[in-house]
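Closing statement on the beta-D-glucopyranose sub-project.
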Amino acid sequence: MKDSAAWPFLWGVATSAFQLEGSPHADWSSWDTILSERPAVTNHYELYREDLALLQDLGVNAYRFSLEWSRIQPREDRWDEEALGHYREITEILGRYGIEPMLTLHHFTHPLWFIKRFPWHEDASVDRFLAYVRRVVSAMDGVRYWITFNEPYVLVLAGYFEGCTPPAIRSPQLGVRALANILRAHAGAYDIIHDACPNARVSVAHNMAALAPWKKWNPLDKLLSRVAKYFYNHSLLDAFLTGSLRIKFPFREEMNIPVPIRGKLDFFGINYYTRIHMRFNPLRNMGVEMRHLDIDGHGLTDLGWEIHPRGLEKVLRYAARLGVPMIITENGIATKDSQKKIRYMKEHVEAIERCRRQGMDIRGYFYWSLIDNYEWLQGLDARFGLYRVDFGTLRRIPTNAAAYYSFLIRHRSF
Ligand code: BGC
Protein backbone atom coordinates (compact mmCIF):
# COMPACT_ATOMS: atom_id res chain seq x y z
CA MET A 1 0.00 0.00 0.00
CA LYS A 2 1.53 3.29 -1.07
CA ASP A 3 -0.44 5.77 1.03
CA SER A 4 -1.91 5.49 4.46
CA ALA A 5 -4.41 8.35 4.12
CA ALA A 6 -7.91 7.79 5.45
CA TRP A 7 -9.67 5.24 3.38
CA PRO A 8 -13.38 5.03 4.17
CA PHE A 9 -15.28 1.84 3.44
CA LEU A 10 -16.76 2.33 -0.02
CA TRP A 11 -20.41 1.36 -0.37
CA GLY A 12 -21.17 1.60 -4.03
CA VAL A 13 -22.78 0.30 -7.15
CA ALA A 14 -20.97 -0.62 -10.36
CA THR A 15 -21.93 -0.13 -14.00
CA SER A 16 -20.27 -0.17 -17.40
CA ALA A 17 -20.87 2.43 -20.08
CA PHE A 18 -21.53 0.13 -23.00
CA GLN A 19 -24.03 -1.98 -21.08
CA LEU A 20 -26.05 1.13 -20.30
CA GLU A 21 -25.64 3.29 -23.37
CA GLY A 22 -24.13 1.27 -26.28
CA SER A 23 -21.92 3.03 -28.81
CA PRO A 24 -22.07 3.25 -32.60
CA HIS A 25 -18.29 2.86 -32.81
CA ALA A 26 -17.78 -0.20 -30.59
CA ASP A 27 -16.91 -3.70 -31.72
CA TRP A 28 -19.84 -5.11 -29.73
CA SER A 29 -22.50 -3.02 -31.48
CA SER A 30 -22.42 -5.20 -34.58
CA TRP A 31 -21.70 -8.34 -32.58
CA ASP A 32 -25.06 -8.96 -30.97
CA THR A 33 -28.21 -8.56 -33.07
CA ILE A 34 -30.23 -7.31 -30.12
CA LEU A 35 -28.12 -4.17 -30.16
CA SER A 36 -29.16 -3.30 -33.68
CA GLU A 37 -32.74 -3.17 -32.40
CA ARG A 38 -31.81 -1.16 -29.34
CA PRO A 39 -28.47 0.59 -29.93
CA ALA A 40 -28.88 3.08 -27.07
CA VAL A 41 -29.82 0.28 -24.61
CA THR A 42 -31.22 2.14 -21.55
CA ASN A 43 -30.44 5.53 -23.12
CA HIS A 44 -28.20 6.31 -20.18
CA TYR A 45 -26.05 8.55 -22.41
CA GLU A 46 -28.99 10.97 -22.44
CA LEU A 47 -30.53 10.12 -19.08
CA TYR A 48 -27.32 10.13 -17.02
CA ARG A 49 -28.40 13.00 -14.76
CA GLU A 50 -31.54 11.15 -13.68
CA ASP A 51 -29.56 7.95 -13.19
CA LEU A 52 -26.89 9.67 -11.11
CA ALA A 53 -29.63 11.11 -8.91
CA LEU A 54 -30.58 7.50 -8.07
CA LEU A 55 -27.16 7.15 -6.44
CA GLN A 56 -28.10 9.90 -4.06
CA ASP A 57 -31.40 8.20 -3.28
CA LEU A 58 -29.51 5.02 -2.47
CA GLY A 59 -27.05 6.82 -0.21
CA VAL A 60 -23.92 5.21 -1.69
CA ASN A 61 -20.60 6.93 -1.12
CA ALA A 62 -18.93 5.52 -4.25
CA TYR A 63 -19.81 4.77 -7.86
CA ARG A 64 -17.86 2.59 -10.24
CA PHE A 65 -18.47 3.38 -13.91
CA SER A 66 -16.55 3.03 -17.15
CA LEU A 67 -15.62 5.21 -20.07
CA GLU A 68 -16.64 4.01 -23.49
CA TRP A 69 -13.31 4.20 -25.33
CA SER A 70 -15.01 3.97 -28.75
CA ARG A 71 -16.99 7.14 -28.06
CA ILE A 72 -13.89 9.02 -26.95
CA GLN A 73 -11.72 7.82 -29.84
CA PRO A 74 -14.09 6.78 -32.64
CA ARG A 75 -11.19 6.72 -35.14
CA GLU A 76 -7.53 6.32 -34.42
CA ASP A 77 -6.88 9.92 -35.46
CA ARG A 78 -10.01 11.45 -33.92
CA TRP A 79 -10.73 12.38 -30.33
CA ASP A 80 -14.27 13.34 -29.45
CA GLU A 81 -14.06 16.20 -26.97
CA GLU A 82 -17.82 16.16 -26.45
CA ALA A 83 -17.69 12.54 -25.25
CA LEU A 84 -14.75 13.27 -22.96
CA GLY A 85 -16.61 16.29 -21.59
CA HIS A 86 -19.65 14.11 -20.99
CA TYR A 87 -17.73 11.66 -18.80
CA ARG A 88 -15.95 14.54 -17.12
CA GLU A 89 -19.34 15.98 -16.24
CA ILE A 90 -20.30 12.71 -14.57
CA THR A 91 -17.28 12.99 -12.26
CA GLU A 92 -18.27 16.60 -11.48
CA ILE A 93 -21.83 15.63 -10.60
CA LEU A 94 -20.49 12.86 -8.36
CA GLY A 95 -18.20 15.43 -6.74
CA ARG A 96 -21.19 17.63 -5.96
CA TYR A 97 -23.00 14.66 -4.44
CA GLY A 98 -19.97 13.71 -2.31
CA ILE A 99 -19.74 10.36 -4.11
CA GLU A 100 -16.28 8.96 -4.85
CA PRO A 101 -15.87 7.96 -8.51
CA MET A 102 -14.09 4.75 -9.42
CA LEU A 103 -13.28 4.89 -13.08
CA THR A 104 -12.86 1.84 -15.31
CA LEU A 105 -10.79 2.49 -18.42
CA HIS A 106 -11.61 -0.73 -20.24
CA HIS A 107 -14.75 -2.79 -19.73
CA PHE A 108 -14.77 -5.39 -22.53
CA THR A 109 -15.52 -3.13 -25.52
CA HIS A 110 -13.12 -1.60 -28.06
CA PRO A 111 -13.29 0.91 -30.86
CA LEU A 112 -13.78 -1.00 -34.11
CA TRP A 113 -10.55 0.37 -35.59
CA PHE A 114 -8.61 -1.00 -32.63
CA ILE A 115 -10.01 -4.53 -32.65
CA LYS A 116 -9.63 -4.76 -36.44
CA ARG A 117 -6.07 -3.47 -36.70
CA PHE A 118 -4.49 -3.90 -33.27
CA PRO A 119 -6.18 -6.77 -31.41
CA TRP A 120 -4.55 -7.56 -28.09
CA HIS A 121 -2.27 -10.31 -29.35
CA GLU A 122 -0.49 -7.70 -31.50
CA ASP A 123 2.21 -5.91 -29.51
CA ALA A 124 1.17 -2.60 -31.11
CA SER A 125 -2.06 -2.79 -29.11
CA VAL A 126 -0.33 -1.65 -25.93
CA ASP A 127 0.78 1.76 -27.23
CA ARG A 128 -2.62 2.39 -28.82
CA PHE A 129 -4.34 1.75 -25.50
CA LEU A 130 -1.85 3.91 -23.62
CA ALA A 131 -2.45 6.85 -25.96
CA TYR A 132 -6.12 6.64 -24.93
CA VAL A 133 -5.17 6.40 -21.25
CA ARG A 134 -2.96 9.51 -21.50
CA ARG A 135 -5.76 11.48 -23.06
CA VAL A 136 -8.29 10.38 -20.47
CA VAL A 137 -6.09 10.83 -17.44
CA SER A 138 -5.29 14.43 -18.31
CA ALA A 139 -9.01 15.14 -18.72
CA MET A 140 -10.12 13.42 -15.51
CA ASP A 141 -7.85 14.99 -12.95
CA GLY A 142 -9.02 14.57 -9.40
CA VAL A 143 -10.24 11.00 -9.86
CA ARG A 144 -8.61 8.83 -7.24
CA TYR A 145 -9.79 5.25 -7.81
CA TRP A 146 -9.02 3.66 -11.16
CA ILE A 147 -9.63 0.24 -12.66
CA THR A 148 -7.45 -0.25 -15.72
CA PHE A 149 -9.07 -3.46 -17.01
CA ASN A 150 -12.29 -5.13 -16.07
CA GLU A 151 -11.77 -8.89 -15.93
CA PRO A 152 -8.76 -9.37 -18.22
CA TYR A 153 -9.08 -13.16 -18.01
CA VAL A 154 -12.74 -13.14 -19.06
CA LEU A 155 -11.83 -10.87 -21.96
CA VAL A 156 -9.16 -13.28 -23.15
CA LEU A 157 -11.04 -16.51 -22.47
CA ALA A 158 -14.11 -15.32 -24.34
CA GLY A 159 -12.23 -13.56 -27.15
CA TYR A 160 -9.45 -16.10 -27.75
CA PHE A 161 -10.16 -19.46 -26.11
CA GLU A 162 -13.86 -19.79 -26.69
CA GLY A 163 -13.96 -17.27 -29.51
CA CYS A 164 -17.47 -16.10 -28.69
CA THR A 165 -16.65 -12.38 -28.39
CA PRO A 166 -14.47 -10.01 -30.44
CA PRO A 167 -11.88 -10.58 -31.80
CA ALA A 168 -13.26 -14.15 -31.88
CA ILE A 169 -10.00 -15.95 -32.53
CA ARG A 170 -9.88 -19.50 -31.26
CA SER A 171 -6.23 -19.75 -30.36
CA PRO A 172 -4.95 -20.30 -26.81
CA GLN A 173 -1.43 -19.34 -27.98
CA LEU A 174 -2.61 -15.96 -29.22
CA GLY A 175 -4.79 -15.70 -26.10
CA VAL A 176 -1.75 -15.99 -23.86
CA ARG A 177 0.01 -13.32 -25.95
CA ALA A 178 -3.05 -11.11 -25.64
CA LEU A 179 -3.13 -11.58 -21.88
CA ALA A 180 0.54 -10.64 -21.56
CA ASN A 181 -0.06 -7.50 -23.62
CA ILE A 182 -3.05 -6.55 -21.51
CA LEU A 183 -0.91 -6.85 -18.39
CA ARG A 184 1.78 -4.71 -20.04
CA ALA A 185 -0.94 -2.18 -20.79
CA HIS A 186 -1.99 -2.29 -17.14
CA ALA A 187 1.59 -1.53 -16.09
CA GLY A 188 1.80 1.42 -18.49
CA ALA A 189 -1.58 2.77 -17.40
CA TYR A 190 -0.61 2.41 -13.74
CA ASP A 191 2.44 4.61 -14.32
CA ILE A 192 0.56 7.20 -16.36
CA ILE A 193 -2.11 7.53 -13.67
CA HIS A 194 0.44 7.77 -10.85
CA ASP A 195 2.53 10.34 -12.71
CA ALA A 196 -0.56 12.53 -12.99
CA CYS A 197 -1.92 11.78 -9.54
CA PRO A 198 0.54 10.34 -7.01
CA ASN A 199 -2.27 9.55 -4.53
CA ALA A 200 -4.26 7.54 -7.03
CA ARG A 201 -5.41 4.04 -6.12
CA VAL A 202 -5.19 1.75 -9.11
CA SER A 203 -6.15 -1.88 -9.70
CA VAL A 204 -7.72 -4.26 -12.15
CA ALA A 205 -11.13 -5.82 -11.44
CA HIS A 206 -10.37 -9.54 -11.43
CA ASN A 207 -13.21 -12.00 -11.81
CA MET A 208 -12.72 -14.77 -9.26
CA ALA A 209 -15.07 -17.74 -9.08
CA ALA A 210 -15.34 -20.62 -6.66
CA LEU A 211 -14.24 -23.58 -8.80
CA ALA A 212 -14.92 -27.17 -7.80
CA PRO A 213 -14.81 -30.65 -9.39
CA TRP A 214 -18.13 -31.86 -10.79
CA LYS A 215 -17.60 -35.24 -9.10
CA LYS A 216 -15.35 -35.09 -6.07
CA TRP A 217 -14.24 -38.69 -6.50
CA ASN A 218 -13.17 -38.24 -10.10
CA PRO A 219 -9.40 -37.54 -10.33
CA LEU A 220 -9.72 -35.95 -13.77
CA ASP A 221 -12.41 -33.52 -12.59
CA LYS A 222 -10.24 -32.74 -9.58
CA LEU A 223 -7.16 -32.14 -11.69
CA LEU A 224 -9.12 -29.95 -14.08
CA SER A 225 -10.63 -27.79 -11.35
CA ARG A 226 -7.18 -27.41 -9.73
CA VAL A 227 -5.61 -26.32 -13.02
CA ALA A 228 -8.52 -23.97 -13.73
CA LYS A 229 -8.37 -22.48 -10.25
CA TYR A 230 -4.69 -21.72 -10.64
CA PHE A 231 -5.06 -20.24 -14.11
CA TYR A 232 -8.31 -18.35 -13.67
CA ASN A 233 -8.14 -17.17 -10.08
CA HIS A 234 -4.52 -17.26 -8.99
CA SER A 235 -2.01 -16.81 -11.81
CA LEU A 236 -2.78 -13.10 -11.99
CA LEU A 237 -2.08 -12.70 -8.28
CA ASP A 238 1.27 -14.46 -8.70
CA ALA A 239 2.08 -12.19 -11.63
CA PHE A 240 1.47 -9.14 -9.42
CA LEU A 241 3.71 -10.66 -6.74
CA THR A 242 6.53 -11.93 -8.96
CA GLY A 243 6.39 -10.10 -12.29
CA SER A 244 6.00 -13.41 -14.10
CA LEU A 245 2.88 -14.91 -15.64
CA ARG A 246 3.01 -18.68 -15.12
CA ILE A 247 0.75 -20.68 -17.41
CA LYS A 248 0.46 -24.41 -16.97
CA PHE A 249 -2.13 -26.34 -18.94
CA PRO A 250 -2.28 -30.17 -18.72
CA PHE A 251 -0.09 -31.97 -21.25
CA ARG A 252 1.56 -28.73 -22.35
CA GLU A 253 4.87 -27.19 -21.46
CA GLU A 254 4.79 -24.65 -18.66
CA MET A 255 5.22 -21.03 -19.77
CA ASN A 256 6.72 -18.23 -17.68
CA ILE A 257 6.20 -14.89 -19.33
CA PRO A 258 7.76 -11.78 -17.80
CA VAL A 259 5.16 -9.03 -17.29
CA PRO A 260 6.16 -5.70 -15.71
CA ILE A 261 3.32 -5.56 -13.17
CA ARG A 262 5.10 -6.53 -9.97
CA GLY A 263 3.73 -4.32 -7.18
CA LYS A 264 1.67 -2.22 -9.64
CA LEU A 265 -1.44 -2.46 -7.54
CA ASP A 266 -2.71 -0.14 -4.79
CA PHE A 267 -5.71 -2.28 -3.95
CA PHE A 268 -7.15 -5.41 -5.44
CA GLY A 269 -10.56 -5.29 -7.15
CA ILE A 270 -12.49 -8.58 -7.07
CA ASN A 271 -15.64 -9.35 -9.03
CA TYR A 272 -17.38 -12.33 -7.47
CA TYR A 273 -20.65 -13.91 -8.54
CA THR A 274 -20.81 -17.70 -8.35
CA ARG A 275 -19.38 -21.22 -8.05
CA ILE A 276 -18.73 -23.36 -11.12
CA HIS A 277 -18.37 -27.14 -11.21
CA MET A 278 -15.93 -28.52 -13.74
CA ARG A 279 -15.76 -31.81 -15.56
CA PHE A 280 -13.15 -33.23 -17.87
CA ASN A 281 -14.87 -34.03 -21.17
CA PRO A 282 -12.63 -34.83 -24.15
CA LEU A 283 -15.42 -33.86 -26.55
CA ARG A 284 -15.45 -30.25 -25.35
CA ASN A 285 -13.14 -27.36 -26.24
CA MET A 286 -9.87 -28.00 -24.33
CA GLY A 287 -11.60 -30.87 -22.49
CA VAL A 288 -13.56 -28.53 -20.22
CA GLU A 289 -17.25 -28.80 -19.38
CA MET A 290 -18.77 -26.45 -16.81
CA ARG A 291 -22.05 -26.50 -14.95
CA HIS A 292 -23.80 -24.82 -12.05
CA LEU A 293 -25.25 -27.12 -9.40
CA ASP A 294 -27.48 -25.98 -6.57
CA ILE A 295 -25.64 -27.98 -3.96
CA ASP A 296 -26.21 -26.02 -0.74
CA GLY A 297 -29.80 -25.01 -1.43
CA HIS A 298 -29.08 -21.29 -1.96
CA GLY A 299 -30.65 -21.61 -5.39
CA LEU A 300 -29.73 -20.51 -8.90
CA THR A 301 -30.07 -17.09 -10.50
CA ASP A 302 -32.16 -16.35 -13.61
CA LEU A 303 -28.96 -16.98 -15.60
CA GLY A 304 -28.68 -20.40 -13.93
CA TRP A 305 -25.66 -19.43 -11.81
CA GLU A 306 -25.25 -21.02 -8.38
CA ILE A 307 -25.63 -18.68 -5.41
CA HIS A 308 -22.65 -19.46 -3.20
CA PRO A 309 -21.70 -16.76 -0.67
CA ARG A 310 -19.05 -18.96 1.00
CA GLY A 311 -17.09 -18.78 -2.22
CA LEU A 312 -16.58 -15.08 -1.70
CA GLU A 313 -14.82 -15.83 1.59
CA LYS A 314 -12.58 -18.34 -0.15
CA VAL A 315 -11.47 -15.98 -2.89
CA LEU A 316 -10.94 -13.13 -0.42
CA ARG A 317 -8.82 -15.35 1.80
CA TYR A 318 -6.70 -16.24 -1.19
CA ALA A 319 -6.41 -12.68 -2.51
CA ALA A 320 -5.36 -11.42 0.93
CA ARG A 321 -1.89 -12.80 0.20
CA LEU A 322 -1.32 -9.85 -2.14
CA GLY A 323 -0.95 -7.69 0.96
CA VAL A 324 -3.00 -4.77 -0.42
CA PRO A 325 -6.53 -3.66 0.58
CA MET A 326 -9.27 -5.51 -1.24
CA ILE A 327 -12.45 -4.09 -2.73
CA ILE A 328 -15.34 -6.15 -4.06
CA THR A 329 -15.73 -4.23 -7.30
CA GLU A 330 -18.75 -6.29 -8.43
CA ASN A 331 -21.20 -8.69 -6.85
CA GLY A 332 -24.77 -9.14 -7.98
CA ILE A 333 -27.57 -11.37 -9.11
CA ALA A 334 -29.81 -11.54 -12.16
CA THR A 335 -33.31 -12.10 -10.87
CA LYS A 336 -36.75 -10.58 -11.13
CA ASP A 337 -37.40 -11.58 -7.54
CA SER A 338 -36.49 -8.74 -5.16
CA GLN A 339 -36.51 -10.98 -2.11
CA LYS A 340 -33.96 -13.23 -3.73
CA LYS A 341 -31.85 -10.18 -4.61
CA ILE A 342 -32.01 -8.98 -1.04
CA ARG A 343 -31.01 -12.39 0.31
CA TYR A 344 -28.09 -12.54 -2.13
CA MET A 345 -26.79 -9.13 -1.08
CA LYS A 346 -27.28 -9.83 2.61
CA GLU A 347 -25.46 -13.15 2.50
CA HIS A 348 -22.52 -11.77 0.54
CA VAL A 349 -22.17 -8.75 2.80
CA GLU A 350 -22.25 -11.09 5.79
CA ALA A 351 -19.44 -13.07 4.21
CA ILE A 352 -17.44 -9.84 3.96
CA GLU A 353 -18.21 -9.10 7.57
CA ARG A 354 -16.85 -12.49 8.65
CA CYS A 355 -13.69 -11.89 6.62
CA ARG A 356 -13.20 -8.47 8.17
CA ARG A 357 -13.58 -9.98 11.64
CA GLN A 358 -10.82 -12.41 10.73
CA GLY A 359 -8.61 -9.44 9.99
CA MET A 360 -8.83 -9.24 6.22
CA ASP A 361 -8.36 -5.78 4.82
CA ILE A 362 -11.54 -5.19 2.83
CA ARG A 363 -12.37 -1.59 1.93
CA GLY A 364 -15.41 -1.63 -0.27
CA TYR A 365 -18.43 -3.37 -1.75
CA PHE A 366 -20.00 -2.46 -5.10
CA TYR A 367 -23.30 -4.06 -6.01
CA TRP A 368 -23.71 -4.88 -9.71
CA SER A 369 -25.73 -3.03 -10.87
CA LEU A 370 -27.53 0.28 -10.44
CA ILE A 371 -30.20 -0.27 -13.11
CA ASP A 372 -30.99 -3.19 -15.42
CA ASN A 373 -28.75 -3.19 -18.46
CA TYR A 374 -27.54 -5.13 -21.47
CA GLU A 375 -25.96 -8.40 -20.40
CA TRP A 376 -23.25 -9.68 -22.75
CA LEU A 377 -24.68 -12.27 -25.16
CA GLN A 378 -27.78 -12.61 -22.95
CA GLY A 379 -29.78 -9.56 -23.97
CA LEU A 380 -31.94 -7.38 -21.77
CA ASP A 381 -33.70 -9.88 -19.58
CA ALA A 382 -30.96 -10.53 -17.01
CA ARG A 383 -32.26 -8.25 -14.29
CA PHE A 384 -29.25 -7.26 -12.18
CA GLY A 385 -30.55 -3.78 -11.35
CA LEU A 386 -31.53 -2.29 -8.03
CA TYR A 387 -33.81 -0.24 -10.27
CA ARG A 388 -35.83 -2.14 -12.84
CA VAL A 389 -35.82 -0.68 -16.34
CA ASP A 390 -39.06 -0.88 -18.28
CA PHE A 391 -37.56 -1.27 -21.75
CA GLY A 392 -40.82 -0.09 -23.33
CA THR A 393 -40.89 3.33 -21.67
CA LEU A 394 -37.28 3.41 -20.34
CA ARG A 395 -38.64 4.29 -16.91
CA ARG A 396 -36.45 3.36 -13.94
CA ILE A 397 -38.53 1.70 -11.23
CA PRO A 398 -37.18 1.26 -7.70
CA THR A 399 -37.32 -2.29 -6.32
CA ASN A 400 -37.36 -3.43 -2.72
CA ALA A 401 -33.74 -4.41 -3.22
CA ALA A 402 -32.85 -0.71 -3.68
CA ALA A 403 -34.60 0.13 -0.41
CA TYR A 404 -32.81 -2.75 1.29
CA TYR A 405 -29.38 -1.66 0.01
CA SER A 406 -29.96 1.88 1.33
CA PHE A 407 -30.93 0.44 4.67
CA LEU A 408 -27.86 -1.79 4.71
CA ILE A 409 -25.54 1.11 3.94
CA ARG A 410 -27.04 3.29 6.64
CA HIS A 411 -26.94 0.64 9.35
CA ARG A 412 -23.62 -1.10 8.83
CA SER A 413 -20.84 -0.26 11.19
CA PHE A 414 -18.11 -0.36 8.54
C1 BGC B 1 -18.92 -8.12 -15.81
C2 BGC B 1 -20.19 -7.36 -16.11
C3 BGC B 1 -21.34 -8.34 -16.28
C4 BGC B 1 -21.51 -9.08 -14.98
C5 BGC B 1 -22.65 -10.09 -14.99
C6 BGC B 1 -19.10 -9.23 -14.82
O1 BGC B 1 -18.35 -10.32 -15.19
O2 BGC B 1 -17.91 -7.24 -15.42
O3 BGC B 1 -19.97 -6.60 -17.26
O4 BGC B 1 -22.51 -7.73 -16.66
O5 BGC B 1 -20.35 -9.80 -14.71
O6 BGC B 1 -22.40 -11.08 -15.92
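The mean pLDDT is 96. With this model delivered, the sub-project is considered complete and its resources will be redirected to Aim 3.
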